[in-house]
Amino acid sequence: MRCKTILFILTVALLIPACQGWNGNKKEQESNGTTTAAQSQTTTKKDTQASLQFTTFSTSQAKHVGDKEDQPKGEVKIDLTYPVGGYTGKLSLEQLNRLFTSTLPDGMNEGSSPKAAAQRFVKTYIDNYAAEMGALGKKAKRGNNAWMNYETTVSTRNLYNDKGFWGYAIDTYSFTGGAHGMKATSYNVIDLERGRLLSLKDLFAESDYPVINRMLCQQLAESLGTSVDRLAGEDYETENIIADDNFMISATGITWLFNPYDIAPYAKGTVTITLSYRAILGYLIDNSPLLRIASK
Hints:
Order of helices and strands: EEEEHHEEEEHEEEHH
Oligomer: single chain
Number of helices: 5
């Protein structure tokens, strides 16, 4: 079973390695220490328990080898959307944002505010890139140092914001001079009523996991217009198609996301498989918080 937090790998010496019910969105942008902010018009729903309100903080920085613009560079971009108000359920706004930050990639998940976490991540990335590449850059030959171009991005997207749940995606991209960069997406759902992240054990009994796994294989086969026993011929590893914590909820069902290499070669890209509530309702555990949606 894959780990909930996507491993974010860099070869430099680092420890770093659609939307529903939005109310009032404020966007901040920061580049090279300069911050600007723009606020859009805010509308409020009558049902305050329907949604959260958000802001988006963006920051980026680049460091050229030897501080020369014609030389390779390390570049990092962060774009985080996080709550600033609205219905937070059992959690305070500060607690909710600490929980959000805890789900971010390594180097950004140390309990600070989202904005502070993003700024720290950028500084650490640039400092480490400069330290690693500085000495090498003095010796690198012009036209033969493209491998020294590094890039990292982290962004979040709101996918569900209703019924006391907040669901969001964390998208990461890392390029470290190889054949291609690596993309990964992590789905996260916070149950505001209980004040914690949803996991697979909040949905199904462990004894029913094999049934859900078979349903996922069947649904994938149907979406491809083939049969389960022919998925291997389509380069899918059926033994790896298993339900885990990387899922998103919607008004109609649950979607599991499989990143490149999880169940198929890189060329297949990201694969999502959705099971409708109608299909899985009978398997939800009696006290599953998801019954707030699925049983409607």
